[in-house]
Amino acid sequence: MNTKHDGTVTVGVLLASVALTACSGSTDTPDESEPTRLAFAAPAKEQGRPEHIPGESVTAAPRLPEGKALAEIAAAEGSRTVPLGRIGEGPLSVLVNCQGRGTLEVTLQPMGMKFPLSCVKGEVSSTYNELRLKKPRAEATLKVTVPSTVRWSLTAGQ
């Protein structure tokens, strides 16, 4: 059987593997929240890895596709806790860009959801995560843990 590969299968497998490594560590019961990780990727010829999105930067906060921004941070360095205040039921989106050598980790409290993003020198890595909340929270925060070698930007919204 003679088959031709144009990179489409590779991108599909990479996206599937990214989607399977979704957020972890939730302390909510399964009926309280439903984590979803959405991955965006450039065409196979342009991408360095699945989470690279051409045109993204760490000097501006990522653009929220819809809804209202609860927090926007640009050109950040070092670890930080980002207050979100009250969050309602429904989808909560977290978009993160990073650049530099190391792994950035975001933890959403009080749910305990965690997701990492591998950052590389000379290229912006991006991720978009969405958590569907079945009940509102009076206070929520995002804790960004990152080595000093990484610059980052973040937007969270509903």
Automatic annotation (TrEMBL):
<protein>
    <recommendedName>
        <fullName>Lipoprotein</fullName>
    </recommendedName>
</protein>
